[in-house]
Amino acid sequence: MTLELRSTRFRAERQEAWLRLERLLGRAERGGARELTDDELVSIPALYRSALSSLNTARAISLDQALIDYLEALCARAYVFVYGARARLGERVGRFFAHDWPAAVRALWPETLVAALAMLLGAALSYSLVSADPEWFYSVIPAEMAQGRTPAASTQELRATLYGQEDEEGRTGLGVFAAFLFTHNAQIAIGAFALGFAFGAPSVLLLVFNGAVLGAFVQLFVSRGLGGDVGGWLLIHGVTELWAVTLAGAAGMSIGRALAYPGRRTRLEAAADAGRRAGVVIAGVVVMLAVAGLLEGVGRQVVTSTPLRYAVAAATAVFWGAYFFRPGGSRG
């Protein structure tokens, strides 16, 4: 049988499927995947595999080069459609916020619970220690973070730091302290995630330490009768910031858990799967830290009413809780 006859028969037996694939790809390339019905979308991968099989056969039996070139071009177009990123940037961003990020967070709810408990444990221990002996305050909070807000400061000085009732030098100090506190929490978030590979233990310890800093700081103000005031000052941005730190720790712990308990997968496969989900969570954590920065830099300085500060804090708590764990959301 001549090469030309073999090519003719080969094409005649399979050309209908090639042409159908070509038509579907043409419609999708002109108007996007929404131009196709569900059945047509489902049929494209099967038609692509069939065309790829035809290409391999054509190469194996050395059919004419024109046919091979045609099939190569058709398979390349189908590959891009099946495996390539077809969504526009706006669609991808929208899907991230509408589905990917909250779904990834819901999937990490056990680690999120452990991370929150670790910070609460650190806060409770530190609060108790400083209550028993104020000297513990200096062991927990670095001097550069305290910025003079220590047991040696007067109640009037401490109150002034919460409402900006200071001179220019004092307001500068307040800004430095607020910026240091934000930077500290951001570093804790990054560290808790990055150290998760060590089976999650360093992540837990970092979260305990972060809670200890908060516990010591709050106890100082509570001991001066300023507990309600410092709560509003911290929580107006702290709800979002601490959410971000908790989620970063949970993401790190999820990688550590996958390494420690890979199940039937290899440790590399388990860590890769956990890493993909954790990466989505961390991308969202960056957004949360940016929001916290705005609340810290603008909201807390503008809103000086304690009840209003609590109202803003409550609103952010409800927002993040509903966003991540809204009824009907899957944990997948």
Overall domain count: 2
Strand content: under 5%
Per DSSP, the total helix count is 13
User: Could you give the distance between the termini?
Assistant: 56 Å
Q: What structural class do helix, strand and pairing data support?
A: mainly alpha
Number of strands: 0
Question: What general form does the structure show?
Answer: elongated
Radius of gyration based on Cα positions: 29 Å
Query: What level of helicity do the residues show?
Result: over 70%
Q: What is the string of SSEs from the N terminus onward?
A: HHHHHHHHHHHHH
Largest sheet: number of strands, sense, barrel closure:
none
**Poorly predicted spans:** 166-173
Whole-number mean pLDDT: 85
Give an overview of the whole structure:
The structure is a single chain. By secondary structure, this protein is mostly helical. The protein has two domains: 3-86; 93-325, no CATH class. The chain has 13 helices and no strands. It has helices spanning 3-31, 38-60, 65-83, 89-107, 109-132, 136-140, 143-146, 155-163, 168-194, 201-222, 227-260, 267-302, 306-325. α1 runs antiparallel to α2 (38-60), α1 runs parallel beside α3 and α9 (168-194) runs antiparallel to α12. The chain is elongated, with a radius of gyration of 29 Å.
